[in-house]
Amino acid sequence: MIERDTLHRFLLENMPVRGEWVHLDASWQALLERHDYPPVVRERLGEAYAAVALIAATLKFDGSLILQITGSGPLHLLVVQATGSRALRGLARYRGEVPAGDLKEVFGANARMVLTLDPGAGRERYQGVVELEGSHLAAALDEYFRRSEQLPTRVWLAADARQASGLLLQGMPGADGAPTSPDTEDWTRASVLGETVTRAELLGLPASELLLRLFHEEGIRLLDGQAMRFACTCSREKVDGMLRGLGAAEVRETLAEQGEIEVTCEFCNAQYRLDAVDTEALFAADERQPDVGSTRH
Fold first, then answer.
1. Tens digits of per-residue pLDDT, 111-156?
2. Among 3, 47, 70, 283, which is most buried by a count of CB atoms within 10 Å?
3. Residue 23's beta-bridge partner residues?
4. Is residue 45 within 8 Å of 157, Cβ to Cβ?
5. Which residues contact 168 (CB under 8 A, 6 or more apart)?
6. From CA 22, how far away is CA 225, in angstroms rounded?
7. Is 295 inside any structural domain?
């Protein structure tokens, strides 16, 4: 039986290779309940949803990892985010009919993929930007990792209307402490075995059965699973901060035109409404600040 909304780390004990397996169900459905995406958009978003969960699991951080694809094609924006606490969210923006083609047809000829690691707590962000290359997202991520200076990494992804799943392999330092090279026999063998995985197996097999099918001679150690969930980081506090950033004059002008301020989160469709009383309270504290240049005698 497949473990739902679970991520497993595993080790291949006979070679310096580790991996991650993820299967998203309720956490994927929670996203789809908030947006009505056509099948092609849904599948690309689901693949990215599984991918960001896998990649985030290889990092040690408390902030968030964001995968974003932008382009001029029918599917012109895709954003997914995973936090260090295993929370996921995502969205896509498209126009017209999205073809069931390769990445260039779907996202446009000049599309870019950006991976952003935000450690949080005001620390510096790390960002990697590459052109979107390959026939599908897994191939694009393989190319991203090939160009980077990280350990060799391969990804396989699948998604449908009910679930999103993925498999990641990554080389580890050998017994001598040296990084695994993409040219080593062990890494080549692991990659070739990984290539035999099918979409149906990714979506339909539990981690233990899938890994045994792929790596039965390599000695598999499957670690305890970690629960994944859909969660949005939007809040009334963040909305208030955004409105303060716009300034009292602009917010009051909008209030006069519309009767209330309504802000909808693009990720989860949560709605935040402010009436005249809320708006005045929002700016009252700032406007009551004393004029530090005046002196009372």
1. 999 999 988 777 888 889 999 988 999 999 999 998 886 789 999 9
2. 47
3. 6, 165
4. no
5. 19, 20, 21, 54, 55, 57, 58, 153, 154, 155, 156
6. 9
7. no
User: Are residues 85 and 19 located together in one domain of the fold?
Assistant: yes
The residues pairing with 271 across neighbouring beta strands, listed in sequence order, are 264
pLDDT at 175: 61
Q: Among 196, 211, 230, give the residue marking a domain's end.
A: 230
| Mean pLDDT of all residues in 5-13 | 96
Closest Cα partner for 8 from 217, 221, 180? 221
45 shares its domain with 96: yes
Judge if 200 and 240 occupy the same domain.
no
Residue 21 near residue 210 (C-beta atoms within 8 A): yes
pTM, two decimal places: 0.82
Looking at the structure, do residues 178 and 136 belong to the same domain, yes or no? yes
Kindly give, in sequence order, each residue whose CB lies less than 8 Å from that of residue 295, ignoring residues fewer than 6 positions away: none
Residue 216, pLDDT > 90, answer yes
Return the top range by mean pLDDT from 13-17, 266-270, 280-284, 285-289: 13-17
The reply to whether 156 and 261 lie within a common domain is: no
- Residue 293 lies inside a defined structural domain of this protein: no
**pLDDT class of 2 with cuts at 50, 70, 90:** confident
Backbone dihedral region of 122: left (phi > 0), alpha (psi from -120 to 50 degrees) or beta?
Answer: left
Count of domains for the chain = 2
3-state secondary structure of 152: coil
8 A C-beta contact, residue 106 and residue 91: no
